[in-house]
Design goal:
The protein is α+β, with helices and mostly antiparallel strands and 181 residues long. Helices cover 24% and strands 38% of the residues. Helix 3 runs antiparallel to helix 5 (145-151).
């Protein structure tokens, strides 16, 4: 099922639209399909959760954007799994470490554990298509992750976006786009 088109807004407070520089008058919000392409291509995401005492917890994960949902996994005893059991709200971020180019993305939503076997198989297929030999080769960094998903040694979470943000930087122009679902 295709991702529903969100409401897209350019926030001029943080975009070049309010700064008088060449080209700023042409700044437009990043289209959602472009953001989806970046989500699909990103190799690493940072998941932010909240500990029971209110302190933040941030850690890198691999993940797959599939059918409008961002999937990631963790061990059932890891801190992020414990945090999500108490408070399922989270944010996943990805982007570039560059001041002048790229698109940084933030997806906010509620993590739901994926347990239905057919959906788990879909997620495994999405991971294998995206990460290839990293997952499918015996020498791969994440070889065996599919079996870990199937057996519960790794917990799979799905985050359907509630809100997403994009911070673009190209040619000296900056955009801050918000997508509401």
């Amino acid at each position: 099922m295709p991702t529903p088109e969100p409401t897209t807004e350019l926030d001029p407070r943080y975009s070049s639209a309010i700064r008088p520089r060449p080209g700023a008058e042409n700044v437009t919000p990043t289209p959602w399909p472009e953001a989806e392409r970046h989500l699909a291509e990103a190799e690493i995401f940072w998941v932010s959760t909240v500990r029971p005492d209110g302190r933040p917890h941030v850690t890198p994960v691999i993940g797959a954007w599939h059918d409008g949902v961002l999937y990631f996994s963790t061990g059932p005893a890891e801190q992020k799994a414990k945090n999500l059991a108490q408070n399922a709200h989270c944010a996943l971020t990805t982007g570039r470490n560059s001041l002048t180019e790229g698109l940084d993305l933030i997806v906010e939503g509620t993590a739901e554990q994926v347990t239905e076997p057919a959906k788990v198989e879909e997620v495994i297929a999405a991971y294998e298509a995206k990460y290839g030999a990293h997952i499918t080769s015996p020498e791969g960094t994440f070889h065996g992750i599919g079996d870990a998903f199937r057996t519960g040694r790794a917990v799979v979470f799905a985050v359907e976006p509630d809100t997403a943000y994009g911070f673009g930087r190209e040619g000296g122009l900056f955009t801050h786009t918000r997508w509401r679902f």
